[in-house]
Amino acid sequence: MVQFVDKRNRSKEKPATILHYNRHMGGVDRQDQMTSYYPASTKTIRWYKKLGIHYIQMMLLNSFFLYRKFSDHKMSLYEFRNSLLCSLLQIPATKENRMPKGRNASNHVLTKINSKAKDGRINRKRCRVCATKKIRKRTLYHCEECPEQPGFCVGECFDSAHELQDAAQ
């Protein structure tokens, strides 16, 4: 038992463990506060998954404290989380201006047709890929870089036509 003085200047006794807890409880409160900045729990997750996520958050926060203690580079918790996740997922931290795979350097892009018919409706074109498969499909999109500016469906038709075109070149 340890003696202490309360708010009214009276001498009282309490267990040493409680005194020790009260002295060091600020760190626990701070850790709880910092984990609350980025909550990851939802009502639909099972309890054991919530517990696992909580442990991962605690490990991440402890590693952040160690990083701040031993590193000269100052970083916020948000930046630390992002850099850690990027390194775990092996994603480059900065966005590079990379050209999409399977595209030619001339940057063929699917654009919306802006011309209108006399009655005010937007003109549509037949999809070139669907037409070769004898499927009648009209689309609002075309490729302005291709000769004749053919129409293409969004997604697979445009991609497959340009992959074939790139392979031919």
TrEMBL record:
InterPro entries: PGBD (IPR029526), PGBD4_Znf_C (IPR032718). Residues 118-162 form the PiggyBac transposable element-derived protein 4 C-terminal zinc-finger domain. Coiled coil: none annotated. Residues 10-64 form the PiggyBac transposable element-derived protein domain. PANTHER family: PIGGYBAC TRANSPOSABLE ELEMENT-DERIVED PROTEIN 4. This is PiggyBac transposable element-derived protein 4 C-terminal zinc-ribbon domain-containing protein. It comes from Rhamnusium bicolor.
